[in-house]
Design brief:
Layout lengths: L7 H16 L6 E2 H8 L13 H14 L2 E4 L8 E4 L1 H5 L3 H13 L2 E2 H7 L9 H13 L3 E3 L10 E4 L22 H26 L1
Antiparallel strand pairs: 1-3, 2-3, 4-6, 5-6
Helix pairs in contact: 1-2, 1-3, 1-5, 6-8
Length: 208
């Protein structure tokens, strides 16, 4: 099933709904305020946004209209809540959902970056396992490779669900000694996730 191109707020809302279903199942489905906080996180997001409630609500309603999200009610709760339907609507497996979420939330990325940044949603055995799922997404025209920019050694992949925000120009390639940056990348990703967890706990406390 083909869906109309998603605007950037819709991309962010869908990515946030997929991510939180993996990472915070006890707080899922998300209230409108929880969804706004998830969209505007300052970690694990590129670019960082500052969407207001009206923007998030409109994006969520649009996703509901096209079949990628729906309203969800829980026992004893009067708040409006949202859940994604990307798995059913796009017919995606859990590993593919994890990859799509990271691409929606963080823009174009290499295979190595995707493996590192999906770690808490789905643990891929190796880079080859990531490439298998990316190939399946490419066959469905949901993901595609970007042309390498000058100085870039690795291909970056991007989702094809709508226009992607412009990325900063690539800098000159790193010196050879910096090529061992995979470990540093993993550490940075871990720190980002710790900060994200703290933000979620703070949001939960504010909600109480």
């Amino acid at each position: 099933m083909r869906f109309p191109p998603l605007g950037q707020p819709e991309q962010r809302v869908l990515g946030a709904l997929i991510e939180k279903r993996f990472l915070t199942p006890d707080q899922y489905p998300l209230t409108l305020n929880g969804l706004r906080l998830a969209c505007n996180q300052t970690t694990s997001r590129n670019p960082v946004t500052d969407y207001d409630e009206a923007t998030v609500r409109a994006a969520a309603q649009r996703l509901c209209e096209i079949g990628l999200a729906r309203l969800a009610s829980t026992h004893g709760s009067r708040a409006v809540k949202y859940r994604h339907l990307a798995g059913e609507g796009l017919q995606l497996s859990e590993p593919q959902l994890a990859l799509l979420a990271v691409l929606l939330l963080r823009g174009p990325q290499t295979v190595g970056e995707l493996k590192s940044r999906t770690e808490r949603m789905h643990r891929f055995a190796d880079l080859a396992a990531v490439e298998v799922e990316l190939a399946a997404l490419q066959a469905r025209e949901l993901v595609g490779p970007l042309q390498r920019a000058p100085g870039q050694k690795e291909v970056r992949f991007v989702h094809l669900l709508g226009e992607v925000p412009a990325q900063p120009p690539a800098e000159a390639g790193p010196p050879p000694a910096a090529a061992a940056g995979d470990g540093l990348l993993a550490k940075l990703s871990e720190l980002e996730e710790r900060l994200s967890a703290l933000e979620r706990r703070l949001a939960a406390l504010e909600g109480r």
